[in-house]
Amino acid sequence: MAVNTFKEDEYQKEVLKKDTLIRLYRYLFVYKRQIVTVLFIMAVTITISLLNPLIIEHAVNVNIANRDMEGLIRLGILAVVLNVIYIIGVKARMVIMAKVSNQVLLTIRNELYVHIQKLSFSFFDSRPTGKILARVIGDVNSLKEVLSDSVTKLIPDFLTILAVAGIMMVKNIQLALSAIIMLPFLAGGMYLIQGFSHKAWQIFRKKTSNITAFIHENLSGIRIVQSFTAEEESNQSFDTLLEEHRKSFTDAVLFADGFSALIEITWGFGGFLLYFIGIQILGVGAVGIGTFMAFSTYLSMFWSPIRNLANFYNKIVTNISAAERIFDILDTVPEVADRKDVYELPVIQGEICFDHVSFAYSDEPDKLVLKDVSFEVKAGETIALVGPTGAGKTTIVNLISRFYDITKGDIFVDGHSLKEVSIHSLRMQMGVMTQDNFLFSGTIRENIRYGRLDATEEEIIAAAKAVHAHEFIIKLEHGYDTEISERGARLSVGQRQLLAFARTMVSQPKILILDEATSSIDTHTEILVQQGIETLLKGRTSFVIAHRLSTIKNSDRIFVIDKGGIYEAGSHQELMEKKGAYYELYQAQFRNIA
After folding, report:
1. Which of 177, 186, 352, 468 qualifies as a FRET site for 381, CA 20 to 30 Å off?
2. Selection from 401, 393, 453 nearest residue 431 by Cα
3. pLDDT (tens digit, 9 = 90+) per residue, 190-218?
């Protein structure tokens, strides 16, 4: 299976920016009422901003020219009232859009998290956890300004440009053309810059993702790093990633700054042309002072929103790569998913049948891990799977849990094809215990109850007693209320595994899978646990994977898995008498122990 590491940039399919923006804005359109309110407020504030130059023009050309102080005072009071309304309106729209944009981010992040939980193991097997975290946290956060500014800046600035251009055209077409003649040059320059800028920001986000993946991986394995005194090597790797990140950011910002430079140049030429045409061509006396002052203000009002739009476009180019990465995950189809016509698996007895099952990972379809495997297991039977590493033992139990879908054949539970029943109803009746004794942050009680959230206190304690975890739990200062971290700090490896075992037991599964479940427990504790297992396995179908062959001697049947198939099958006694592969494995292990 191809695996992406923190040393490699993630592959990202190319999509049209237009499609990404439309998809992003659909989240905004859910809040139509709030957006309509904001648009109404903006209509009022834009109108007021457009009236201000006209007020100045009237004040200079009429009131001041005619020495009409009373009219000037009335006009001043009107201007103050209008601008107070303007300030209140701007603040109100900012507050409303802040709430809307934050709610959209919450919706996207929640949708992303829910979808990720539905993805198949192959998705997580092929990439570091840190790179997934980078999308859920960093990439989602980067969309906030784009969402907010889309309503509070894009629409009002666009409308302002149109309104100002219209007013200038009506008042003096020559001066108006001098103000807008540079727009085609601005548009052409922005189009050229954005192509390079978008690529640069895509690379930057990939480098950011690499750093997140490295930090998550190193902190998760900090005991190994410190145990092997590999801090210096880790620092060197981190420095390399930081340098790549710095360079990618510098390159991206270099292109982004090109937008500002382009705007200032075109704005400057626009201002020069306004005064050149107004003074040199039309003549000083051709245009009134108030009109010239109004046009100067309109020129600023015309180019200021253009600068805002260009900066907004720059933000889109900067952050649209984040939206692309988010939608890339949302568009990832789970390899294992329910069909439309599935039904709920009824309460089962635990009979299992493999019917000519073959399996290969999706990215290596020609490399079969299991080849035409067939067997039947009666309800309540205990089946042990043994064999060399990589033979396919864990693959078999993963297929029973439907963590992966088979390539060929079919698997039946109590006569029900796994393809025809819902995944949830299947896994609800299964218990899986692996050598990965992962614990969640919280109390011991919460960790055990995770196996079945409606478990009673008595059931939690019974499960802990069954695997002999109760004895060490009650000796802790806070007993079952003892807080532990995901690493299970202050608990031994064996104790953490006992808690994970109790978590599996409390779920009362019909089918139980133990994948090297006792590998971290000392021999004395293992004997006690085996006694608890024997009691709990009664009436349950179980699959046990164990390299310590002494722990599976009492299994009903033992399957020797090798080269993608069942090489031998039978009870311990039958296989020992056969003196085949199992006999050789057992004798070799016994000699090693001796």
Report:
1. 468
2. 401
3. 777 777 777 888 888 888 888 888 887 88
DSSP, res 63: I
Nearest to 164 by CA among 43, 278, 40, 50: 50
Buried b (16+ CB within 10 A) or exposed e, 28-44: beebeebbeebeebbee
Confidence of residue 539 (pLDDT cuts 50, 70, 90): confident
Mode of pairing for the β-strands spanning 382-386 and 408-413: unpaired
Q: List Cα–Cα distances, 389 to 378, 449, 551, 585, in angstroms.
A: 27, 33, 18, 13
User: What gap in Å lies between CA 204 and CA 247, rounded to an integer?
Assistant: 9
**Quick one: angle between helices 231-275 and 289-330, nearest 10?**
150
pLDDT, tens digit, 9 for 90 and up, residues 392-418? 898 999 999 999 999 999 999 999 999
Q: What tokens does 269 get?
A: 């030429």
Structure tokens at 519: 């590998």
Encoding tokens for residue 248? 């990618």
Contact 387, 562 (CB under 8 A): yes
Percent of the chain with pLDDT over 70: 84
Among 101, 104, 112, which Cα is nearest to 137's?
112
**Continuous H helices in 276-288:** none
pLDDT, tens digit (0-9, with 9 covering 90-100), for 30-40: 888 988 898 88
Q: How far is CA 532 from the centre of its chain?
A: 40
Residue 44 zone, left/alpha/beta (φ > 0; ψ -120 to 50; rest): alpha
Does pLDDT of 377 surpass 90? yes
Closest CA to 502 of 435, 453, 449, 440: 449
Q: Which helix (H) or strand (E) holds 430?
A: strand 430-433
Backbone angles phi, psi at 510, to 5 degrees: -85, -30
More confident residue, 198 or 12: 198
Mean pLDDT within 115-121: 85
Q: Write out the H or E segment, with its range, that includes residue 190.
A: helix 183-220
Contacts of 292 (CB under 8 A, 6+ apart): 278
Instruction: List Cβ neighbours of 242 (8 Å cut-off, separation of 6 or more).
Output: 211
Rounded to the nearest 10°, the torsion over CA 30, 15, 256, 265 is -90
pLDDT at 300 over 60: yes
Give the pLDDT band (50/70/90) at residue 423: very high
How distant, in Å, are the alpha carbons of 56, 209, 256, 338, 407 from that of 119?
62, 20, 36, 12, 18
Q: How many CB atoms lie within 10 A of CB 523?
A: 9
Q: How far is CA 506 from CA 58, 451, 512, in A?
A: 83, 6, 12
Rounded distance between C-alpha atoms, residue 556 and residue 554, angstroms: 6
The span from the CA of 281 to the CA of 272, in Å, is: 13
| Cα–Cα distance, 29 to 86 (Å, whole number) | 25
Q: Work out the mean pLDDT of the chain and round it to a whole number.
A: 81
Mean per-residue pLDDT, 495-514: 85
- CA 332 to CA 326: how far, in whole Å? 10
**The pLDDT of residue 141 is above 90:** no
Q: What is the pLDDT of residue 408?
A: 93
Q: Shortest CA distance to 350 belongs to which of 399, 400, 421, 386? A: 400
* 242 neighbors 6 (Cβ within 8 angstroms): no
